[in-house]
Design brief:
It is a single chain. By secondary structure, this protein is mainly α. The protein has one domain. Helices cover 45% and strands 3% of the residues. It contains six helices and two strands; from the N terminus they run H-H-H-H-H-E-E-H. It has a two-stranded antiparallel sheet with strand order 1-2. The chain is elongated, with a radius of gyration of 24 Å. The two termini are 44 Å apart. This is ATP-dependent endonuclease. It comes from Peribacillus simplex. Keywords: Endonuclease, Hydrolase, Nuclease. GO terms for molecular function: endonuclease activity.
Length: 150
């Protein structure tokens, strides 16, 4: 009987995930590259066109904030004061801007909320955060051969 050595080629077929010591699960979940929720989102084929449309709509809505009279007045006062302090230098106007909604990064802004009161992970106990983290890791280990959304 011929023996076949077990090597790196065979390891790729194992659905294995090593969970390192859970010292700070909250920051681990916030870290874009290591976050299990972001890894799970990457498993889906989300259309870029759909994200572009959403980003544009969010930007348009958030820009409405800039038309509030009080903010227009404040912007004018800040710009005038800045210009008087700096002098008549080129490009000394100051303006307010809302968030920039980059379609490529919009999914990274998603936050996990817990419970009926929709608490952020920073407002829950360490134990709950650990269980949530393990739940996300277990979900990532599930077989996704047949996607749930086609």
């Amino acid at each position: 009987k011929e023996e076949i050595p077990f090597n790196h080629y065979h390891r790729r077929f194992l659905n294995l995930n090593v969970i390192h010591a859970m010292r700070d699960v909250e920051s681990e979940m916030k870290h874009i590259r290591r976050s299990p929720i972001n890894q799970l989102i990457k498993q889906y084929d989300i259309r870029k066109e759909e994200l572009d449309e959403i980003a544009l709509a969010l930007k348009e809505k958030s820009d409405e904030v800039l038309s509030i009279d009080e903010l227009v007045d404040l912007t004018s006062k800040i710009s005038a004061r800045f210009s008087s302090v700096i002098g008549n230098q080129v490009d000394s106007t100051v303006s307010l801007e809302t968030m920039d909604f980059d379609p490529n990064k919009i999914l990274n802004t998603l936050k996990l909320m817990i419970g009926k009161k929709r608490r952020q992970t920073g407002d829950t106990s360490l134990g709950i955060n650990n269980i949530l983290y393990i739940s996300l890791i277990l979900l990532s280990l599930e077989d996704n051969t047949v996607p749930s959304i086609i």
